[in-house]
Please model this.
Amino acid sequence: MAASTMTTDVFQLGKYETVLIKVATSPSDLANPPPKPLLIGAPAEAAGEFPVMVLLHGFMMETSFYSQLIRHVSSHGFIVVAPQLYTCSGSNSADEINAAAATTNWLSQGLAAVLPPQVRSNLSKLVLAGHSRGGKDAFALALGKSSTPLALPFSALIGIDPVDGLASCCCHIQTKPAVLTYVAQSFDLKMPVMVIGSGLGEDKKCGVLPACAPKGLNHAEFFKECRSPAWRFLALDYGHMDMLDDDTPGLRGLISYCSCKNGRSREPMRRFVGGVAVAFMRAYLEDDDGHVTALKDTPDIAPVQITVEVRL
Model:
């Protein structure tokens, strides 16, 4: 009972007030600007040292669309750094993988200057996460597929409905560099991994548009290729974009609503993704596995209906 109560807390906002910080690539007041524009979420006033998550956005999405998710994670005592990797991209994601590596390398030299004065980053506890194509990019970076060498090691990896493909008008093509090998437990990641899947991701929107997370290119195959320790949480009644903000303005925001099959509202899925990410990071960064263990043992405490698969 105590574990269930504790785990429910991760699906609510945490104890820290948060601030969202936008950082451009050429601000006049920064001696070491980042290689890509950033949206950073951090505790606003509490002094302390906090783990860091690098969050990679989905295909053609904007980092601002993840503001509510970023605030949720940050409110539990984490710094979230979300680079805008590109504004337009095609079937080759090599440039954005390199940009993610360059952003990661920038953290040790540039992050402190843009955080609130009393907030410090703990880069020995560094998590890599990504949504959709950003999830594929995160796996690619963790697997060493960047031509930009990494200066910092990652402690854990989170794939939020990752997809190793790009939808065309009638089908999906695997994007380059390919990540999926279709060989079980072939990923030599040397870190714990969590994969979050959407139950509606394999469904076509209105029965016509290509599925946003098609079978064979989605979370199930990513998890299959992970070695232990690996976790997979599948939100059965929610879609590929349902962890984004409620309000995603502009054409790209409209696409986020119109291109994929969605659940009834985004709020429950967003709380689930934020909460399970916090639970996973506490387990592997802070040696507190009560949250993920309770979810495994009692999945109905989650705000959405889930199935859980674990390989320890």
Observations:
- The mean pLDDT is 93.
- The chain is about 25% helix and 20% strand.
- Helices lie at 2-9, 67-74, 94-110, 133-142, 219-224, 250-258, 267-285, 290-297.
- The chain has one domain: 2-311.
